[in-house]
Specification:
By secondary structure, this protein is of the alpha+beta class. It folds into two domains: 104 residues; 84 residues, ACT domain (Alpha-Beta Plaits, 2-Layer Sandwich). The protein contains five helices and ten strands. Strands 1, 2, 3, 4, 5 and 6 form a six-stranded antiparallel beta sheet that branches. Strands 8-9-7-10 form a four-stranded antiparallel beta sheet. The protein starts with a strand and ends in a 14-residue tail after the last strand.
């Protein structure tokens, strides 16, 4: 039996393209309810295994959707539904939440910044955080702190940035790198705005 694997939700009913998708699928298409579209591919399970390869394919599909000019509310890896009917029921029930999320992230991308110190360096975390905030917070629409999963991590934040402000943000990162030459900056993205949406869509069946 064929099920539907969901990458994200868009304000469109005509997203369709071919690419390397999750679980060996090649066709991306839209299941829609009242102009709200779930971007999906076919899959033979409702409990897909999260391999590194498929996690990357999930992110790559979202990036293609964004590159095509669509605002997307991304789903985390592994969201699959038994039928079109089950998926449309979710779109119907969560429609207000999806609309709010789309308004929040429309025209925006997520960028990630990690700052790493050398193992033997003693740094003033507060001063660095203040310096970064002075440069980046005026540009970003929102930002959130992420886990400091290593004692060498000085800062780990995600920023929601207008697409049109990407070059301005890039320049701010470059200034910070020049200012803090003793630190390593890991600047990543753009990503779909995972960190800035929180839509609970209930059961997968």
């Amino acid at each position: 039996m064929t099920h539907r694997y969901v990458y994200g939700v868009v304000d469109s009913d005509d997203v369709e393209f071919e690419t390397d998708a999750v679980a060996g699928a090649t066709q991306i298409y839209t299941i829609a309810h009242r102009r709200l579209g779930a971007v999906v591919s076919d899959i033979d399970t409702t409990d897909p295994e999260e391999t590194d390869e498929d996690a990357q394919r999930h992110d790559d599909v979202l990036r293609e959707i964004m590159d095509d000019g669509h605002t997307v509310v991304p789903m985390q890896f592994g969201m699959a539904f038994e039928s079109d009917r089950a998926l449309k029921n979710v779109l119907r029930g969560a429609r207000p939440a999806f609309r709010r999320a789309m308004n929040d992230v429309e025209g925006r991308i997520e960028l990630g910044v990690k700052i790493v110190r050398d193992e033997d360096d003693d740094v003033d975390r507060g001063t660095i955080e203040e310096s970064v905030a002075d440069e980046l917070e005026p540009i970003a629409a929102q930002s959130v702190a992420n886990d400091l999963f290593s004692d060498r991590l000085v800062l780990n934040r995600s920023y929601l940035v207008e697409r049109d402000d990407r070059e301005v943000f890039d320049a701010a990162i470059a200034r910070l790198e020049d200012e803090h030459e003793d630190l390593t900056f890991r600047y990543t993205g753009p990503f779909a705005p995972y960190s800035f949406v929180d839509v609970k869509i209930g059961a997968q069946r």
